[in-house]
Design brief:
The protein is built from 21 helices and twelve strands. With 499 residues, the chain is mostly helical. The longest helix is centred in the middle third of the chain and has 22 residues.
């Protein structure tokens, strides 16, 4: 490589040696009276640079010099001042480095993995899973746990996976997933025990989906769950309300856990005459896709929201003289979470509700139900509109291709028809006002007595006009009268959803 010798600059001040280092002009030795003195400075500098070997680093010079400086700083912090110890430390590292220990056994490598900080931070559930699948692999290699790490091949991995596949496809998937993480994340990247892994030649696989186990809930079953939830949670109306939002928007549980009252409509303001006002706007940081998304509020969900005194107590009328103009969130509730529970709570409660009302628990499938039923009833079998509404990647055919063939137009219409909520159901739902407001962020209740305006209730009791000319019937009997009637109609509420 041609050496960079720099040059001598002449001016009225004298002679100056300058050289380009890492793309920048550098002056060395200051101004000299004669050219001979400047050349001497140049000679001394270049000789020192040649001895350091910096010019032999080629394009990697900057990174290598910086790394060497960083390494020496680490030694200095440890009390070692002699630069020669940097060389000694490098030689010692190469001798002790696991990369050079070609005979390190699988057992020794796994012990190192269990001792590292990254493994310690895992939950007990994940630790047990890694140990279990490592044990399965040890059963497939020639010398078990004593097999050298570099002798474990792709064939051994595939044999372990095949053994797990005899249990189920899902077990085979989890086997490959966990073993891949052991070798790539721990042995290769975290501990640097190997430079290549047996998984370099195995393509990644997607989790298999057993479609037959994911039969959608029928509209009758869904309404049965709704009815039981309303009856069982009369003192906690936000629980069934969260269920309704999920059931009719297809919202992810993680997104539901973070919605606040000011996300309804346009910054917490819903003008009934504006067709695009009925939506829930989720910021990008809460979305699974990490993109801002607006979930449309269908008519059936509007009815449930606008007949919930607990929901409406967080809002004021936009115009006190005309409540039917719209509502806006009260200032003290703008950042208040409506739900705030962890994502698993919906599933946990649904299991209990299903068990209590004799509906087979088949999983939290409401997102699939919105995609399937909404595809038929709301979006005229338009795939892109359906995907846009539920926040799914547009252009793929994976959203609900396994379900739409099983959904009939009649069942979709029934699921989204607000008239299928009986009078008994609406009487209970429209009486669930309560005085306590849940504070999910503090995991406690605030006893907030918010007087519900009789005039507002009176106007909402009969009809509520929307921009597209729809008129939704709201439960008209509330308070003590509704409670008495509800007790008499309890069985009708649970089993007579008008279906």
């Amino acid at each position: 490589m041609k050496q960079n010798k720099g040059g001598i600059l002449k001016s009225s001040r004298g002679y100056l040696f300058r050289i380009t280092v890492e793309g920048k002009q550098k002056s060395v030795g200051g101004w000299q009276r004669t050219r001979k003195e400047a050349v001497a400075v140049q000679k001394n500098f270049l000789e020192g640079r040649e001895k350091s070997g910096v010019d032999s680093f080629d394009v990697y010079s900057t990174a290598l010099v910086r790394s060497a400086k960083d390494a020496f700083n680490i030694l200095q912090e440890a009390g070692i001042d002699d630069p020669r110890h940097l060389v000694d430390a490098t030689r010692l590292y190469l001798k002790q480095s696991p990369v050079g220990q070609t005979k390190m056994t699988f057992n020794e490598a796994f012990d190192k993995m269990e001792d590292c900080d990254r493994f310690e931070e895992l939950s007990d559930k994940h630790k047990d899973a890694y140990r279990r699948y490592a044990r399965y692999l040890a059963e497939q290699v020639p010398n078990g746990w004593k097999t050298p790490l570099n002798e474990i091949t792709t064939d051994h991995i595939l044999a372990t996976k095949d053994a797990c596949s005899k249990t189920s496809r899902n077990e085979a998937f989890k086997c490959q997933k966990h073993l891949s993480y052991i070798f790539d994340a721990f042995f290769k990247n975290e501990l640097r025990l190997v430079e290549i892994t047996p998984f370099d030649r195995i393509p990644a696989v997607r989790k298999p989906k057993d479609i037959e186990k994911k039969e959608l809930y029928t509209p009758e079953e869904a309404f049965r769950i709704f009815a039981y939830a309303v009856n069982a949670e009369q003192k906690r109306p936000w629980r069934p309300l969260g269920l309704f939002i999920k059931a009719y928007t297809g919202m992810h549980s993680e997104e539901l856990a973070n919605i606040t009252f000011d996300m309804f409509g346009k910054s917490g303001e819903i003008r009934f005459e504006e067709s695009d006002a009925f939506e829930i706007n989720i910021p990008a940081e809460y979305m699974k896709s990490r993109q801002l998304h607006s979930y449309p509020i269908p008519v059936v969900l509007r009815k449930l929201l606008m007949s919930s005194p607990w929901f409406l107590k967080h809002f004021n009328s936009i115009d006190p003289k005309n409540f039917l103009m719209g509502i806006k969130v009260k200032s003290q509730f703008k950042d208040r979470k409506l739900w705030g529970y962890t994502s698993r709570k919906v599933s946990d409660w649904m299991k209990d509700w299903c068990s209590s009302c004799d509906v087979e628990w088949r999983g939290n499938l409401f997102r699939h139900m919105v995609a399937s039923y909404g595809y038929k009833e709301l979006w005229n079998e338009n795939l892109s509109k359906t995907q846009e509404a539920i926040g799914h990647s547009i252009g793929t055919d994976t959203t609900f291709k396994h379900y739409k063939s099983k959904v009939t137009g009649a069942s979709a219409k029934k699921y989204y028809n607000p008239d299928n909520f009986t009078e008994a159901f609406m009487n209970v739902w429209s009486s669930m006002e309560g005085e306590e407001v849940y504070r999910p962020d503090k995991h406690e209740f605030d006893t907030v007595k918010i007087k519900y305006v009789d005039k507002v209730r009176k106007e909402l009791n009969n009809t509520l006009a929307f921009g597209v000319g729809e008129r939704l019937m709201i439960g008209s009997k509330t308070g003590k009268k509704a409670t008495k009637k509800t007790k008499k109609a309890k069985s009708k509420l649970l089993f007579g959803m008008g279906l």
